[in-house]
Specification:
By secondary structure, the protein is α+β, with helices and mostly antiparallel strands. The strands form 7 sheets. Strands 6, 7, 8, 9, 11, 12, 13, 14, 16 and 18 form a 10-stranded antiparallel sheet that branches. A 5-stranded antiparallel sheet has the order 5-4-10-17-15. It has a 4-stranded antiparallel sheet with strand order 19-20-23-24. A hairpin with a 4-residue loop joins β1 and β2. α6 packs antiparallel against α7.
Length: 666
């Protein structure tokens, strides 16, 4: 089920799904340890002898955020029982505490006893066994722990701090009533401790909600690597009161996302809202130590047997560029530090990494068909980091920062890209494509290597090493020339997805139309107005735009990943946000007048239309029902949207200035 409403602070991340259940709890690294993996933690309500979990269809839900903030505003209404609950969910921007404030509105004309139950099904450290949950009478809270991971569940009703009720139980209780089911009669058995397959429920009771009035309940979950840590956080909440954390976190994120006030040109408010929401969503999936996580939606495990909770050089480079375009260089700084620490001594990034910088599991083999060594890499991941880093430096001119990464990251990667060349064509050696599906020499990868070498040449010129700059530019020129010769098919009038070259130099082309063949334009190897690009983009738009009411651009013809339609002529694949944004960037780049920007504006409006109500963007959408598919949110989707919006604004202001200048001249 798609994730919606992520809240976090770079150490602690909580994901809700679209039924408003808690599905992921990451701590202390974003994306590394999911303490609720595969489990569903629910919220329940008892009133007048009736009980319902909030994922029951009887509840009408509006799930959004407060404006410009990482504080939710979730309104759930159940007319049958006459209650409206308004939730504010957040993780404090500095302290590792998850808060939930619930305003209970009584729609009946008599006072009522309303009881809320917060259920936690855990797999602390991602393992089923060995969790301990117990009630701590001094703290009046449930403590949940395994080894060096501690969580404390507390609460407050009106001015009274402490739980009204609690219980613990096993998620494999056999014939016994589970802790979750125990809540459904409106009271808990107060089982003081459980160890093993653990779950816990806390009860917070507003026993006299006035007729037609309201009461407020607060719940919090503190996280630490030791017991003393959660005890200190609980004392801090008691001292300051939970409302103070809500206020300061709301204010922090509003200040963060509004650190500048860009001119949004003619973009409607809905697009500027999507821009700010995309920045916030990206930030919540970035670990404070620099790891930019692709997605923290763990349900994809059912499809892949793995998650997206890793760092890819490719995704991170796009996200870093988007952050830099929006002037969040302090965030991208840490990502480039992360890359400098993980790059190999030979100068390349491997497939993917865990948030603490360890090499993650991968599905790219180290041996070829003849059992000879081959590098299991996507070379675009290495090249894009250098490309993005030059954009970072070119904007902020932080020379001291670049100096610290000049040798190990920049020159190391550039030397690898120069040497890692196929001898018959002078193109980059085979590697895996950006979709991680096939090995070959890909138009997209070739364009990124060209861009990475140009960036490295810029850096070496800045540092006065002219010989290296000349070497890198020469290699880039050779790669560009070879790309036009071997990867552009003049009969078809477009770039090929890829080629393979055998030991005798015989080329085998892949004619599949793939959205990634826009790479030569996207990274500046050829301008948008070049005839080779125009014919290539025409093929992408004609063949990959989904011919349904939903629209959008598929990855490539007959894309079988999450495939929902065999009507390839009309639905070549599911629409992807990133691929659709590339087409918007093309329209923006070639615009010669303000009217020329209209197709790009339509695509930006398309992205806003198919976001979840919260503003969260998935990886893909269903080509008929427009519901999210695959992971949600996808950091890359939000990065691509931010990049397209910023490029639109820049181009609009440029064209507007030209129009004004011509008008003055006449």
């Amino acid at each position: 089920m798609p994730r919606d409403l992520p809240v976090g602070n770079g150490n602690l991340l909580i994901n809700f799904d679209t039924d408003y259940n808690i599905r992921d709890i990451y701590y202390p690294y974003i994306g590394k340890e999911n303490h609720s993996e595969g489990c569903v933690s629910r919220t329940g309500v008892w009133v007048d002898g009736n009980f319902a979990w909030l994922d029951d269809p009887a509840w009408q839900k509006e799930m959004v955020y407060e404006s410009d903030s990482l504080v939710t505003k979730v309104t759930v209404t159940n007319p049958e029982i006459g209650l409206t609950l308004i939730f504010s969910d957040l993780v404090d921007f500095r302290r590792d505490i998850f808060f939930r404030r619930v305003n209970i509105a009584n729609q009946r004309n008599h006072p009522r006893d309303v009881r809320l139950f917060f259920h936690y099904a855990l797999r602390i450290l991602g393992r089923e066994i060995g969790d301990t949950i117990y009630y701590h009478p001094e703290l009046r809270a449930l403590v949940m722990y395994k080894e060096q991971r501690y969580f404390l569940a507390g609460g407050q009703v009106n001015e009274r701090i402490g739980l009204n009720d609690w219980t613990t139980g096993s998620t494999k209780s056999g014939d016994k009533k589970s802790a979750r089911r125990d809540a459904e009669d409106g009271k808990l058995e107060r089982v003081p401790l459980i160890c093993g397959f653990a779950e816990g429920v806390i009860g917070l009771y507003a026993k006299a909600v006035p007729a037609g009035g309201s009461s407020t309940i607060y719940h919090w979950l503190a996280a630490s690597t030791h017991f003393h840590g959660v005890r200190e956080l609980a004392a801090l909440v008691k001292e300051r009161g939970p409302e103070s954390f809500i206020i300061r976190t709301r204010d922090y994120w509003r200040a963060w996302v509004n650190k500048e006030s860009p001119d949004f040109a003619d973009l409607p408010a809905s697009i500027s809202d999507l821009y700010r929401r995309s920045l916030l969503t990206m930030r919540v999936q970035i670990d404070n130590r620099g790891a930019i996580i692709a997605s923290t939606d763990s349900d994809i495990t059912d499809v892949l047997g793995d998650t997206y909770s890793y760092v890819w050089g490719r995704d991170g480079a796009f996200a870093a560029k988007a952050l830099d375009m929006a002037n969040y260089d302090e965030v991208s700084h840490e990502f480039f530090n992360f890359c400098a620490n993980i790059i190999t001594s030979e100068g390349y990034l491997l497939h993917k990494y865990t948030p603490d910088g360890s090499l993650a599991g991968q599905w790219m083999p180290w041996a070829d068909e003849e059992d000879k060594l081959q590098l299991p890499i996507q070379e675009d991941g290495t090249a894009l980091v250098i490309w993005s880093l030059w954009h970072h430096y070119n904007k902020f001119r932080n020379i001291e920062f670049i100096r610290s990464h000049y040798q190990r990251l920049i020159k190391n990667a550039a030397d690898f890209m120069v040497s890692y060349r196929e001898p018959h064509t002078n193109l980059p050696m085979p590697s895996y494509d950006l979709w991680e599906e096939r090995r070959g020499i890909h138009s997209f990868t070739v364009a990124t290597v060209w861009a990475g070498l140009q960036a490295a040449a810029n850096f070496t010129e800045t540092f006065g090493e002219v010989a290296f700059a000349r070497q890198y530019r020469q290699a880039a020129a050779e790669i560009k020339e070879a790309a036009i010769e071997y990867l552009y098919d003049r009969k078809l009038g477009r770039f090929l997805r890829s080629i393979t070259v055998d030991a005798d130099g015989v080329l085998a082309p892949d004619y599949t139309i793939d959205s990634s063949i826009c790479g030569p334009f996207l990274f500046g190897m050829l301008p948008a107005t070049d005839p080779l690009i125009e014919s290539t983009m025409a093929a992408i738009i004609d063949r990959l735009w989904c011919k349904t009411e939903v629209g959008g651009v598929a990855r490539y013809e007959n894309d079988r990943y999450q495939q929902v339609s065999q009507d390839i002529a009309n639905v070549p694949g599911n629409p992807w946000f990133v691929c659709t944004m590339w087409v918007a960037q093309y329209y923006i780049a070639r615009a010669q007048s303000l009217d020329d920007l209209k197709p790009a504006l339509q695509i930006l409006t398309w992205a806003q239309r198919y976001a979840l109500p919260s503003g969260v963007l998935a990886e893909q959408i269903h080509p008929y029902s427009y519901t999210p598919l695959s992971v949600s949110p996808l950091t890359w989707s939000h990065a691509g949207t931010v990049i397209a919006i910023r490029e639109y604004i820049d181009k609009y202001l440029e064209l507007q200035a030209q129009t004004h200048h011509r008008g003055k001249g006449t």
